[in-house]
Specification:
The structure is a homodimer of 413-residue chains. By secondary structure, the first copy, chain A, is of the alpha+beta class. Chain A is built from twelve helices and 16 strands. The two termini of chain A are 26 Å apart. The mean pLDDT of chain A is 95.
């Protein structure tokens, strides 16, 4: 069996036309009219492939091909909603390739052992409704349907209202398809694979995330008249912390990342010592113990800076997710499959969140990555070369075939 | 002779009512209607004191009491324009006290040896017309009258238009009053005197100022997916520079101040490594050679940071003023006067700019400071206790008396 790669590309192109932005990006924010149009298009393709289509109470869409032993399916999938001005591949590539894997069975008149299913999860990006990965979160039992329905969008609509309005409020109970295994194919959205010059990323897990908002409060003073030893400079304190975050990542070692993305001094005037700086620290690690150690060091260094500069601090935890470790057997299977098909691969962890991490709560799950040029994503400049997209879809097909043929025994039924 | 301190306070209060803001601050931005109303009020007081009033081509106002040997006057003065929401003392205290010194002569029927003059300089704050200290700059020959007249305000009017509109375009040629000596009494606008617990600041000079805008350009990347060793983090580079600026001040030693007031990262999002940061560095020193050394170290460390983090940089010099050293004899005379009148004093340099630094180009000049509570200025919370204001005015009177009586021979005629 061989994937019809040209159909993948033409479908990526066709979907990109829905909600196309003036600079060629994609704008299909969850449960807007453009997202609905995208969903309708995907469903038309699923119908063409002869799939049985079910929609659940969160608007998650599942297209299933019956196998010889009907029951818990081998599932693929991702999302088709986008950020405000995103690329054509984030999410869509995984959904369209998943559908293509199933279509390949159909085209070759092959009946799989298990049911094969492709899923489209609602509101992965979290731009309009928070949190992100909402559809898969609820599907995996991480939040109740009722609670999710009451979430209010940035434009003041509830999720339930928008599900009804777009006609994507389904009857299927969330989580009712007991999944044998889940594999999500996705672009990396980072630079590691490109830099390693490998086609395939074997994703071992998703980093745990720790976000803090930190506000240093010092004393706003005249830049000319205030001697250095009398300053309580909030910008100095903040900058010491930025440098310390880098040192913490070095101390914890490879795999620990730390980022200060937001620095907002007040009053932000050239000749005034900043009296206050609000900043954010984003720490991520695949290892929960190491992530905890990084958080400990962060707090220790903040205390030290406060004493050194005579400033006060307010710390607020914004987000905390534990790392997700994907199913070892599926990870190995993907690595073997890549190798057997002649692709160099890199084992890596995902720095970004994905629906697969929610599915990993309820079934054996893993991910396949393909390179992102310059690591760029969430941007119209997002790009992956055709042969890399083809390679990813091929590895997905071969891995699904192996799982379907019972090459691994997953814990699920 | 003794100063009528209660008149000083009632006049400060009366002037504060002109352009009073909702939170009790003062708003008399140069050559606005409120500034004009303040000028009119000051002129009415000058007339009451019997002074001869002259206005020059820049709207600078000079009120003169004839002395026994008429000719080049001993001058006092400052400004009465304010920032957007300033205090009641910045500038006004010096003008009103200068007028009070002359009024004291008049009240006591004392005729001074020299003419005594009080000056009100136009647009000291530089909020509406740039540069700041414009009236005294032109008076001292640092800019031509024609060039100054063409300066366009932030609201699109030329200085000449606004001088005509407010009826403050005078006929007197700028610089035509040859001044024997100039003393400016001012609040410190910094914390040094309060912290030293002294009433009087003997100002030896004004710091040189070097302002740079520095823009680091790195690579904007995903905070989760970009390994630390592949980052070109503009915020890290900027923060290294903030810390280095502090180190530079320590290296150069006491008297060197350095401030990063502006830090503006792009895109300033929690989960994105900043690709660009624009920041400012404000360096000041009373010693030109040391200021040059600080600037040299600044550029050296920027180069080092660019190499270390793999970022590019754009550097723009925004402002560069050489330090001003006040007349040694007048400085000593002020110190002696403070001591003789029972006031502890502190010798210091001004970190802020003042009209006195322009007058120092054309006559022997110096300044007297009184403490600012918490070092706060350019703010409605600007405050100096009554007894401190009284002490400053008393020292001004006594110093002027000495100069008038020929205690020092200045270089001017």
């Amino acid at each position: 069996m061989k994937i019809n790669t040209s159909r993948i590309h033409s479908r990526i192109e066709a979907l990109a036309k829905v909600g196309k932005t003036s600079d060629g990006g994609s704008r299909r924010i969850a449960l807007t009219d453009d997202d609905k149009a995208g969903r309708d298009l995907l469903i038309s393709w699923m119908e063409k492939t002869g799939l049985d289509i079910k929609i659940d109470q969160l608007g998650n869409i599942f297209g299933t091909l019956k196998g010889k032993n009907s029951g818990s399916p081998v599932m693929m999938g991702s999302h088709i909603d986008t950020v405000g001005n995103g690329g054509h591949l984030d999410g869509c590539y995984g959904v369209i390739s998943g559908l293509e894997v199933i279509a390949t069975y159909v085209d070759h008149n092959e009946v799989p052992e298990h049911d094969l299913c492709v899923a489209i999860f609602t509101n992965e990006e979290g731009v309009r409704f928070q949190p992100d990965m909402l559809g898969s979160l609820v599907y995996a039992g991480g939040m109740s349907v009722g609670e999710a329905h009451e979430i209010v969008s940035t434009d003041g609509k509830t999720l339930l209202e928008e599900l009804i309005r777009t006609k994507y409020l389904g009857h299927m109970e969330c989580g009712s398809i007991i999944t044998h295994a889940y594999i999500e194919l996705h672009i990396e959205q980072g630079p590691v694979l490109e830099n390693n010059n490998t086609f395939i990323g074997v994703v071992e897990g998703v980093q745990g995330i720790s976000w803090h908002s930190i506000t240093f409060k010092g004393q706003s003073n005249h830049a000319g008249t205030t001697p250095m030893n009398m300053r309580k400079d909030a910008a100095y304190a903040a900058s010491k912390l930025v440098v310390a975050v880098r040192e913490i990542t070095e101390e914890i070692g490879v795999g620990q990342v730390g980022t200060v993305g937001v620095i907002t001094p007040k009053p932000n005037l050239i000749n005034v010592v900043p009296g206050e700086v609000q900043m954010t620290v984003d720490l991520r690690n695949i290892d929960e113990e190491k992530l905890k150690a990084a958080e400990f060091l962060l707090k220790e260094v903040i205390d030290y800076i406060c004493i050194e500069e005579g400033v006060k601090v307010e710390i607020e935890q914004l987000v905390r997710f534990e790392p997700v470790v994907f199913d070892e057997k599926i990870v190995e299977l993907i690595a073997d499959t890549a190798e057997e098909n002649g692709y160099f691969y890199t084992r890596l962890n995902s720095g970004a969140g994905h629906d697969a991490q929610m599915m990993a709560r309820i079934c054996p799950a893993a991910m396949i990555f393909v390179p992102s040029r310059d690591g760029i994503s969430h941007n119209p400049r997002e790009y992956t070369a055709t042969e890399l997209l083809d390679a990813g879809a091929e590895v997905l097909l071969k891995a699904i075939q192996k799982i379907d043929q019972g090459d691994i025994n997953t814990n699920a039924s």
